[in-house]
Prior knowledge:
Layout: E1 4-5, H1 7-14, H2 18-26, E2 38-39, H3 43-54, H4 76-79, H5 89-126, H6 133-166, H7 170-215
Antiparallel strand pairs: 1-2
Helix pairs in contact: 1-2, 6-7
Amino acid sequence: MINELKNIELAKAFNIPSAKVAMWLKRNQIVKNDRGFIDISNPINKIWLDKKIAEGLEMDFNRINEKIAPPERVDKKEKEIKPTNGKGSTSQKIAEIADLQKKKARLEIKNLQNKDKLDKLKIEKMEGALIPTDAVIHLIAHIVPTVTAQHKQNIDKILNLLKQRLDIGNKIYVELQKELYNTANDLNAEIKQELINSIDNIVDDYREVRGRGERK
């Protein structure tokens, strides 16, 4: 059994790069003897190498004398790609091209559909059908209840003053409050609907005016 090895020989035995052995030496994980060899029987070296073997590295001294075989020469004719029959590269490429054409056609159809939608929206906008009423209606739905809530707060203030000055009882207070609240809610609904109707009328008038303008 070989005990003293050079860096390259230990690397070959473990089938690892020489740089890995050099790193082990630099970190003093293994050491060289006075003759400049790595003595695998040295306790320091043996502990480290046994650890590497336990981790999965395989030491084979037969690798040390193996020579690297020269690369095989490949004849130029052998390098030429020969066409295959049946399900070979030609038919596969034809299928790939057909698939790409299908995807391209689907994309073009989708683009045309999107263009039609955009053209339709432009026409509707020109005719006055796309006045941004949604935002206004949303604003109304927010503002009117807010005003109604403030109205109810004022109702409570007035009722409290009446209770203090006229000494009305709780029963009369609750009845008045309920009646006035109902009036405020009804007014809320009426105002909201009236505003929405007004917006619809504006849209109709605008569409009619735009229609007359486009027909000129």
